[in-house]
Fold:
Amino acid sequence: MAADEERIALFLDYENLAIGARESLGGAAFDLAPVADALAERGRVVVRRAYADWNLFDEDRRMLTRQQVELIEIPQRMGASRKNAADIKMAVDAVELSFERGYITTFVLGTGDSDFTPLVHKLRELNRRVIGIGVEASTSALLPAACDEFLFYERLPGVEPRVPGSGGSRRRGRGTKASPAPVPAPGATEEAEAPPSSAAREEHDIAAVVRQTLAGLQSSTSGPVYASTLKRTILRKDPTFNEADHGFRAFGELLRHLADRGVVELSDSGAKGDPEVGFPAGAGESDAAFALLHDTVAKLGRSKKGPVLLSGLKDRLRKEQPDFDEGALGYRGFLQFCRAAQARGVVELDYDAEAGDYALRPVAAVGAGDAPAPVAPSASTPKRRPSP
Structure:
């Protein structure tokens, strides 16, 4: 274990999170997987506890058990009265653990309740870093300011609101894998499209895992990302990961293979066998994907004479480019990909309360009115930055 590795204790005021998610995200159930991924990029989670009257959250209990969370039963009803005793129990346990487990460096409190603000102050007084996690609409303004870092649940990669009429949550639990979209084999015709080989599918999957994890590490750390750090983080997300299962003798060999294909870029860190890992500079698959998004949104916007809703947009992109997959580009969800496009000045993205969905508009090329989407920049074409 790395000496400077963060050891994290996670405490969830589950009723606050579950009800907040259901009311704010179109009825979508709270999913711990995006939270677990975000914490894996910050350190090693050694304690996971959730507090609630579990008779009220039967399906959630199963999901949390699969995520290795210890469920603390707090009965809500005593006779005719109903009292939520989870708050004080969670606070007592957190303070007790801070004295009993000196190696725990970070406490993560999953709640939006301002009643936990004194607990945050006490833990910081005890030289512990405190990260808060809450649903934005149900989080008190007092709590985020007290924490060292605060993560709004709905902004985490992989969390997308359920849109009206979808019939079910668009998210999948970590234990469920979606079937990959069919990718045409090289040289395949429209009349006979061959499915990708098992080897090609495995390479695509491992490239997506590496990209997603690297993107998360770069956003949560200020320094360079080394190969050893990258592998530890992948193992936190999936303890069964083994590069040998993908045909590589060592993790470094896997990274060199991905570097040869332009997925990552390796540079000497000074430590033998532990190179620095980053994304390739210049034009690449992401630029082409952003251009595809711009073109598609512009085309749909002209036909609809208005903004384009997020729901169904990914399917339209796949009609234009069947192998489109934001996961292979390092994004955990289509909404995160669209937010990245907004940050790069490709589209405008706003939440439309009336439609209950996100609306996108294309950003016109600089000085070209309604010009088509910008092409991917090359060595002779500087990358266009969003206007301030």
The first helix runs from residue 14 to 24. The CA atoms of residues 182 and 195 lie 6 Å apart. The first strand starts at residue 7 and ends at 13.
